[in-house]
Write a structure and sequence with these properties.
Number of helices of chain A: 6
Distance between the termini of chain B: 42 Å
Shape of chain A: flat
Oligomer: heterodimer
Number of domains of chain B: 1
Helix content of chain B: over 70%
Largest interface: A-B, 16 and 21 residues
Strand content of chain B: under 5%
Radius of gyration of chain A: 20 Å
Distance between the termini of chain A: 58 Å
Chain lengths: ~180, ~350
């Protein structure tokens, strides 16, 4: 099972995305987002990116999602919608689940899957130890490169965040 | 809006388009598009009524979907070529998806439905920014990936856009919707020649922006958003009726005016590439555009409906001061003799 752990985790990832895309109340969307964040962290860590996975847990789940949860709790209604309370939501959720199950069966059964790009069934999802960079970890060097060669990206991202705050304040301010 | 914040947000719109036009990394281009989208939302919502909020939401949804499609095309390109630089797109699927995403951002058919509704819901100045500045970024990306665009898809979208832009504008009396359908048709002309000679796309974009700027500024000057209120300009500033006439005929592509230059060059370029039916169809469908411009000039400049005597002295607010209006009017009508200077655009 451990060779196919990335495949399993990505299936759970897609199922949890279907879970919040079928639009229950935001509280339940946040719940499923926690699951998807954790599973996404698992996927990244299986590719060797332990630092980035930690970032996902700390900053995304522990920072942004907590704030989201608090604000949603302030603005929630008395009987929030679950997946089974509304026929539409349940229908969309089941449809998404059905499509994912069919896709998984297709990938598992056939030798080669050629949807947009060809990959050979489940084989390509297994993690191989390429053994190239045993000295240093690639993803830590990537993060370090972001702050040295990629200074422009940091500037643009920081400016986008600032303008994002200004835009949101401006839009919600009203008259 | 607080002037400092408004300036910051406007500068971010500029910065987003600049990042898109000057980046060589696909991810930065995507970031530029998102920054552009994020920052233009409060500009579209300058007045707080439900119509502007609905228009901004529609704009946000369509542009965000287009950005998602763009990201998917970027990742498929990454999977097949292994690199992030923006040259040509190495995979036909990625090329088709990217063309569709950029067509959604521009408002080409079959993704044109948001353009009239969004343009109608926002103020004239915001509509001006929407129809001119926001077209620069996607067009620059189309220019850069033009060697690898699937010709069939792009030409189909272009011809359908010219048809929809002409046909859809026929029943409109709201000026902003007329300008929106005119934008759809002009985008169709621009993308039709993109694969053959991208320089002409840039020429068409330049002249289209000048003409649209002029038209919008004339509308802002007379504070008119419907055909009916435009037909009262003889009362407010009689000079602008002539200017509206000249600029509208230039937008329709009539010969001695500068709007003829891009159409002429595009038809010439298409016939040089041995496609004759296509430019004939495009020229015929541009007549639909000319028809509703002519209808605007008929009610504005060419006729004066019978009115009572007290309408001849109309009370109005102080006239807005529009910067750069005279040079724009001159440029959007008199540039045709400068056509041999096209060689500098290479």
């Amino acid at each position: 099972m451990m060779t196919y752990i990335v495949f399993i985790l990505s299936v759970i990832f897609v199922i949890s995305f279907v879970g919040f895309s079928s639009k229950p109340s935001p509280i339940y969307g946040g719940l499923v987002l926690i699951v998807s964040g954790g599973v996404g962290c698992g996927i990244i860590m299986n590719f060797g990116g332990s630092f980035l996975g930690l970032m996902v847990f700390l900053i995304y789940l522990g920072g942004m999602l907590v704030v989201f949860g608090y604000t949603t709790a302030m603005a929630t209604e008395q009987y929030p919608e679950v997946w089974v309370s509304n026929t539409t939501v349940m229908g969309v959720f089941l449809l998404g689940l059905l499509m994912e199950v069919m896709l998984v069966l297709y990938v598992l059964k056939s030798e080669e899957v050629g949807v947009v790009f060809k990959f050979s069934g489940v084989g390509d999802w297994a993690i191989y130890d390429t053994g190239d960079s045993e000295v240093f970890s690639e993803e830590i060097m990537g993060v370090a490169a972001l702050y040295s060669y990629g200074a422009w990206v940091v500037i643009v991202t920081g400016w986008s965040l600032l303008v994002g705050v200004l835009v949101i304040l401006e839009v919600t301010r009203g008259d | 809006m607080n002037p400092l914040i408004f300036t910051t947000i406007l500068m971010t719109v500029l910065l987003g388009t600049m990042i898109v036009m000057m980046s060589s990394h696909w991810l930065m281009i995507w970031i530029g598009f998102e920054m552009n989208l994020l920052a233009i939302i409060p500009i579209l919502m300058k007045k707080y009524n439900p119509r502007t909020m609905e228009a901004s939401t529609k704009y946000f949804l369509t542009q965000a979907t287009a950005s998602m499609l763009l990201m998917m095309a970027i990742i498929i390109n990454l999977m097949h070529s292994g690199q992030w630089t923006i040259t040509k797109v190495f995979n036909p699927t990625a090329s088709i998806i990217m063309t569709s995403a950029l067509a959604m951002k521009l408002g080409l058919t079959p993704f044109h439905f948001w353009v009239p509704e969004v343009t109608q819901g926002i103020s004239l100045t915001s509509g001006l920014i929407l129809l001119t500045w926001q077209k620069l970024a996607p067009m620059s990306i189309l220019y850069q990936i033009s060697p690898s665009i699937n010709l069939n898809i792009l030409l189909t979208m272009a011809v359908l856009s010219i048809l929809v832009g002409g046909w859809g504008g026929l029943n409109q009396t709201q000026l902003r919707k007329i300008m929106a359908y005119s934008s759809i048709a002009h985008m169709g002309w621009m993308t039709a020649v993109l694969v053959y000679n991208p320089t002409l796309t840039m020429l068409n974009m330049l002249i289209y922006i000048m003409m649209t700027l002029t038209m919008f500024m004339l509308f802002i000057h007379s504070s008119s958003t419907t055909t009916l209120s435009l037909s009262h300009t003889w009362n407010k500033t009689p000079l602008t009726t002539t200017l509206i006439l000249i600029t509208l005929l230039s937008m329709g592509g009539l010969p001695p005016l500068s709007g003829f230059m891009p159409k002429w060059m595009i038809i010439q370029e298409l016939t040089k590439n041995s496609s004759i039916i296509l430019p004939t169809l495009m020229a015929i469908m541009a007549l639909l555009n000319l028809y509703f411009y002519m209808r605007l000039t008929y009610s504005t400049s060419l006729t004066m409906f019978p009115s009572t005597n007290n309408m001849k002295m109309k009370w109005q607010f102080e006239t807005k001061r529009i910067t750069l209006l005279p040079p724009l009017i001159v440029m959007s009508s008199l540039l045709l003799p400068l056509t041999p200077m096209l060689s500098i655009l290479d």
